[in-house]
Amino acid sequence: MAPRFEYAQAEEVRDSFARHGVRYLFIGKSGAILLGYPDTTQDADLFLEKSETNGAAAVAALRELGFDLTGPQADEIRRGKDFVQIRSGPFDLDLVFAPDGIETFDGAWQRRVEVEGFPVCHPDDIIRSKEAANRAKDRESLPRLRAFRDYWQRTRR
Amino acid sequence: MAPEPDERERREWEAEFEAAARRPLRTRLRYAFIHTYKPVLDDATYRSFDTMAEYRAWCTRELPDWLGYGPAV
Question: What ipTM does the predicted assembly reach?
Answer without folding.
Answer: 0.92
